[in-house]
Write a structure and sequence with these properties.
Blueprint: H1 7-15, E1 20-23, H2 29-42, E2 47-52, H3 58-67, E3 72-76, H4 84-88, E4 93-98, H5 101-110, E5 114-118, E6 124-125, H6 133-141, E7 148-151, H7 157-165, E8 170-172, H8 175-178, H9 187-195, E9 201-204, E10 211-214, H10 217-227, H11 232-239, H12 243-249, H13 273-296
Parallel strand pairs: 1-2, 2-3, 3-4, 4-5, 5-7, 7-8
Antiparallel strand pairs: 6-10, 9-10
Helix pairs in contact: 1-2, 7-13, 10-11
Amino acid sequence: MVWCSGWKLASTVSNAGGLGLLGAGSMHPDVLIEHIEKCKKATSNPYGVNVPLMYPQVEEIMKIIIDMEVPIVFTSAGNPKAWTSSLQKHGIKVTHVVSSLKFARKCVEAGVDAVVAEGFEAGGHNGREETTTFCLIPMVSREISVPIIAAGGIGSGRTMLGAIALGAEGVQIGSRFAASVESSANKKFKELIVEAKEGSTELMMKKLTPVRLLKNKFYEQVKEAELSCADADTLKSLLGKGRAKKGMFEGNLVEGELEIGQVSATIDRIIPAAEILHEIWEEYMLEGKKLTELFAQ
């Protein structure tokens, strides 16, 4: 949710009954401070911050989170042992995002409060194993005892119900909220998400860090390089700096990096985040009731 989840989206989701997360991966320290302050003013409900541990200023980011008493932190893209105990000493709940059973086990060893098990359907940076969410959740749930949050390919009440049935205690949803009214993503990017169809995304850059992209000119350049057996340095040069900001935040749909999940093919409207949350919950409850009635027959 880099360039998509600022204080407006996070606070709206929290006010509507979900847990809104600020995406620190696209924020400099001073910008994160501003968003935390505004989020606190906009909601009295719990909220959290997602921190990619590969972030170059991670120590400064974590100090801000501790000093500003952020209640919940979701860490990703790094070793969960690095910050879990330090954050927990300050009363902060810690959840770490993984894409495999192997790393879920490492999270338990690190003492996290919960694990996000994310399948390769998800947008943004992804796992090399290419394990789908509905295969990953049962594997993880039968081996670890901490709460599991399912992510990747979830954007409706039905998929939420399926994830719960497979062993998750909750779900994390990104792509559908990227196209919400309150998302800080560029309107052009949101409109392109709505236009996405089956096959509009692909997992790329496996020699670097796998990332799921909407297909555009930049994607075609990456695809051509990978088919030519380009090495990691060549891909790094092609990626350059600020490519995600250019696409998702500034709206350059040709040269920008456009990160979104496969579930984008099911998104057909740009609507308020609270409405999205209510739709998901109502469908979840309705489908759950149908199953209960079916089992009672």
